Amino acid sequence: MRDAVLTARRIVVKVGSSSLTTAVGGLDSDRVDALVDVLARARGAGTEVVLVSSGAIAAGLAPLGLTERPGDLARQQAAACVGQGLLVARYTASFARHGLRVGQVLLTADDMGRRAHYRNAYRALSQVLAMGAVPVVNENDTVATAEIRFGDNDRLAALVAHLVRADLLVLLSDIDGLYDGDPRRPGAKLLREVRGPEDLRGVEFGGAGSAGVGTGGMVTKVEAARMATAAGVPVVLTAAPHAADALAGRETGTFFHPTGDRGADHLLWLEHASSPRGTVQLTGRAVHDLAQGRGPLPAEDVTRVEGHFVAGDPVELVDEDGRLVGRGLASLAGQELALIRGRSGRAVVHQDDLVLLPTGARAELPAQVRRRVSVRIRPAHESGQPPSPVQELRQPSTG
Ligand SMILES: Nc1ncnc2c1ncn2[C@@H]1O[C@H](COP(=O)(O)OP(=O)(O)O)[C@@H](O)[C@H]1O
Ligand SMILES: N[C@@H](CCC(=O)OP(=O)(O)O)C(=O)O
């Protein structure tokens, strides 16, 4: 039995498109009902449940006469627009069989990236839970543009687990866990437990699943598990039909053990959810001092400032070669910092407002996951533009 599952009072459950829909048939009511039965049982036993459900785009395909997931954003938006309504209507009817209400929560990256919006989302979700309803969360795909998308709900689910301070994240897919190689290849072995990045060394990833409606494949799930476990949230990854076992604490799928503790709220947000408004380049000495825990960061150690940010905004910190070092909350506006950089002792970022990249842990992640982690932390203000030299240098060199 998995104690961390049995003691969890608030859980986030994420289900993928491939577990709810098919490209040709749209939503599969039996599979929705089977999942809802499990979640309703957990709710009945006093566990608060937040459901992060994919499936909007897949559910909208058939009603719009599409036979496969379109490659262009406009038709994906249209499919999501039609499919999200159908998806939530289906959940509403299905939870109603258990006397439970659902509430739809559609999030954009901006809702997470801005601190005030993040707090607002926390307040709203907490209230829905306190009133006994089940929030059904998805990305707001109809209005999300290519540049500002979360892109995959595995990552969104990890962010929601941080946001609502969940005790457990359950990822339900069409596969019964993480394999050491593409499970379609003979001989691939299921990993029952992952204790840290070292257990992921040598793991290989194939593409998304067979139904043709999943998006991220296993890479995004491992990334989500990394984000959750680093903040002290254990993760169970298994197939949707095994949801009952997973929530009952039985050994199913892959269990990712926590690798860190939940830090201060604003640092968790800063590291994973914030949209940096600028970039601050540091001297080698400053990077060294930060790594030794010596702060605050003085303006004299800043060599370059990019972006339009005000005091309190998140910024990326990069080293002399443009490699990402961490993120901080600026204590000065970018314009002011540009004037005094290199020659003032004023603090640019305080020690308490700083997160450094765990470079050692990152180095142990499989190359595909590392690459994704780096791409994800691209500053929002640069999105949609060709990568700057800073960004190019930031991509890991291997893989
Ligand atoms: N190493 C691996 N272990 C398990 N599954 C993998 C691996 N590499 C690729 N996959 C694929 O990832 C798929 C799940 O991802 P995806 O289709 O995006 O599902 P979902 O819709 O649940 O998010 C599986 O069906 C499997 O074929
Ligand atoms: N937000 C999208 C799903 C994106 C996504 O991550 O899908 P999946 O890989 O099936 O979990 C939708 O509802 O269609």
TrEMBL record:
Pfam families in the cross-refs: AA_kinase, PUA
Binding site for substrate: S54, D141, N153
Compartments (UniProt record): Cytoplasm
Keyword annotations of the record: Amino-acid biosynthesis, ATP-binding, Cytoplasm, Kinase, Nucleotide-binding, Proline biosynthesis, Transferase
Domain PUA: residue ranges: 278-355
GO MF annotation list: glutamate 5-kinase activity
E.C. number(s) listed in UniProt: 2.7.2.11
The reaction(s) this protein catalyses: L-glutamate + ATP = L-glutamyl 5-phosphate + ADP
InterPro entries: AceGlu_kinase-like_sf (IPR036393), Asp/Glu/Uridylate_kinase (IPR001048), G5K_ProB (IPR041739), Glu/AcGlu_kinase (IPR001057), Glu_5kinase (IPR011529), Glu_5kinase/COase_Synthase (IPR005715), Glutamate_5-kinase_CS (IPR019797), PUA (IPR002478)
Residues bound to ATP: K14, S173, D174, T215, G216, G217, M218, V219, T220, K221
Main location: cytoplasm
Pathway: Amino-acid biosynthesis; L-proline biosynthesis; L-glutamate 5-semialdehyde from L-glutamate: step 1/2
Annotated region described as Disordered, given as residue ranges: 377-399
Entry similarity comment: Belongs to the glutamate 5-kinase family.
Job description of the protein: Catalyzes the transfer of a phosphate group to glutamate to form L-glutamate 5-phosphate.
HAMAP family in UniProt: ProB
Listed name of the protein: Glutamate 5-kinase
Protein species of origin: Streptomyces cylindrosporus
Gene designation: proB
